[in-house]
Protein 1
Amino acid sequence: MDDDERREAGTDVRRAVLGDAHVDRAAAGATPFTEPFQDLITRYAWGDVWSRPGLDRRTRSAITVAMLATLQHEDELAMHCRAALRNGLTRDELAEILLQVAVYAGVPTANRAFRVAEEALRPEPDDPPEPT
């Protein structure tokens, strides 16, 4: 793929995973200083990595939540907890992921991640129904 194709594929996946409202806010908030970064993450993270066929989005979400919790990237963790619901994970599965984080990254890290996730997962009007 060339950059334009990666950007288009990345935009499609980013919208599917994070939702139109989030992507629209990110685009509207871009400045000349941050536009290159928005383009980079759209092409690279979403167009090159999230678009690959090797893992489904549900699995990618689980891995991403675990890594963000472990690294204590709270804003991104909140965003990806909400995205995980769009990708088919349940709240119970997210709790299991964070329990796994507690074992391998430490109880204080998971404690904070549980608080971030619980706040992030308060239902919002545009949330898809949770899978059963």
Protein 2
Amino acid sequence: MSDVAQSMPTVLTVDDSITIQQLVKQTLEPDYRVIVTGNVVGALSVIYREPIAVLLLDVLMPEVDGLEFCRTLRRLPQFQTLPVIMITSKDSPFDRIQGRLAGATEYLTKPFEPDQLRQMVGKFVQ
């Protein structure tokens, strides 16, 4: 990995959709180092060895969903302040409340505009 990539803030996106993974990479890669994984197990292996600036997390995933993963992260002291942006197609007020209760910092619904995502991530990375 180049020194330039190492110095860029890292965004981890956890989504089982290859399309969403690619969209996030295309949207953020000019300004951020983007790591993608399709499940929570992959996310855990990354999050413990890489300094993550922002976590983008899908709600609906096989095995462990994003809400449960977010709740688990919030119980660990080193991840209590990590910005977590839920990116999901679930858009009811109840879904948004569930996201907040699980510990999500922000909530973005699919389909999203690339500018929305850049702006939201930018709020947490100086």
Protein 3
Amino acid sequence: MQVKSIYRNARISAFKAREVTREIQGLPATDALDLLRFVPKKAAELIFKTLSSAVANAENNNNLNVANLVVQEAVVGEGPTFKRFQPKARGSAGPIRKRTSHIRIVLTDEVEIKRREDKAAKKSKKPAAKKAGAKKKTTAAAKSAATETVAPETTATETKE
């Protein structure tokens, strides 16, 4: 089941907020909340509030388990722009655009939870498979080294006899 939470007219530009939402997409909701607590940006606080609202909606309205929730999508769209003017030299005026945005977060419990540690483990296994040819060379070198080490031992035992 999907659960949505929308924060409308947030006083931050969509460009700045998108930078933070890219980080939490696809993460489990609890991991995303932990991540947002330590991001030193204004957008992180606004997205944290929206995400915690979505988690509360899922828990209280739909009786879903918080541990199974995943951030399916975190989207930031542009809201209305407040137009102001700054006085400039010689009686002219320069425009100032105060941008706003709409933050939408969708949680779901239908997607399998994939943690970042699992992805890192999979990436570390892939290069090992590519180096299989290199391993064969090292094993051949190890065999030749093993035969070299065996030969001096036998000669040492022969001299002792």
